Amino acid sequence: MPRLMINGKAVDVTVEDDTPLLWVLREQVGLTGTKYGCGIAQCGACTVHIDGQPVRSCAMPVGSITAEQQIVTIEGLSADSSHPVQKAWAALDVPQCGYCQSGMIMAAVALLAAKPKPTDADIDAEMTNICRCGTYNRVRAAIHLAADGGVRRG
Question: Which intervals hold domain 2Fe-2S ferredoxin-type (predicted)?
């Protein structure tokens, strides 16, 4: 029975080691903010953080994650959507349908942690999530807004 650290809490799950983390999060733990998109780690809708790094959870077998590693989902960023990236997303009306946005936000948070003042080229290189609605210009603008501190927490 694997033990996982999810959003700061130890969680025991009963699954096979090759079960994708995405299904553990959604079906075993009940954290449905992380979305299923493609199932082959291409679209990014399932992006979560493991030890601060963005990971496509649909292709991450739960057996490869240790009990010490910290998993953060969209629900773990803030209890009330007050994370600066979430606030920038809302301020600029980034989502259209919204399906891919939890993965986009998780990727953007990781990008800003690695590069607090990213250039457009940095954003284009690191934001590999796919959005069918095509809100990429608003995604870029929201990342810059969050990086510039234009939207404050709380």
Answer: 1-77
Decide the pairing of beta strands 70-72 and 3-6: parallel
| C-alpha to C-alpha distance for 81 and 139, rounded to whole angstroms | 17
Q: Which domains are seen in the chain, by residue range?
A: 3-77 (3.10.20.30), 84-147 (1.10.150.120)
DSSP state of 36: P
* CA separation, residue 43 to residues 13, 62, 106 (Å): 26, 20, 13
Percent of the chain residues past pLDDT 90, beyond the cut = 94
Q: Are strands 47-50 and 3-6 parallel, antiparallel or unpaired?
A: unpaired
Question: Can you tell me the distance from the alpha carbon of 134 to that of 21, in angstroms, rounded to the nearest whole number?
Answer: 27
